[in-house]
Amino acid sequence: MIRVHLPVDLADAFQTPAVLEVGARSLPEMVAALEARYPGVAHWLIGADGQFRQHLSVFVGGRRVAALDPDTPSLGNGEEVWVLRAVSGG
Fold first, then answer.
1. Residue-level pLDDT at 54
2. How are strands ordered across the β-sheet holding 2-5?
3. Fewer Cβ within 10 Å of end Cβ, the chain: N or C?
4. Is 4 helix (H, G, I), strand (E, B) or coil?
């Protein structure tokens, strides 16, 4: 099981806790597990190009993940994944 931290507004929209556990060994499996539990959440996370949406930053073990693809590092038991809204401005 991995622990997924979601933005509060996303958690509220899908009536889920902001921190939850899912069984996944990769980021694509994580998205699929979240979608199975909360239909529609994948559309919020993933764009038409199959990548995380531009307004999101995803971190695994404290490191930013640039793209959603099968070559991303595997997720170990107890791994922490943070999905954050990207911050911009000046």
1. 86
2. 19-22, 2-5, 80-85, 56-60, 63-65
3. C
4. strand
- How many domains, in total, are found in the chain? 1
pLDDT, mean over the chain: 89
Q: Which has the closest alpha carbon to 86: 60, 62, 52, 61?
A: 52
Q: Which two tokens mark 70?
A: 């099968």
Does some domain include residue 33?
yes
CATH at residue 30: 3.10.20.30
Length of the chain: 90
What's the whole-model pTM score?
0.88
Q: With H, G, I as helix, E, B as strand and everything else as coil, classify residue 28.
A: helix
Residue ranges, the chain, pLDDT below 50: none
The per-residue pLDDT for range 3-14, each reduced to its tens digit, is 999 999 999 999
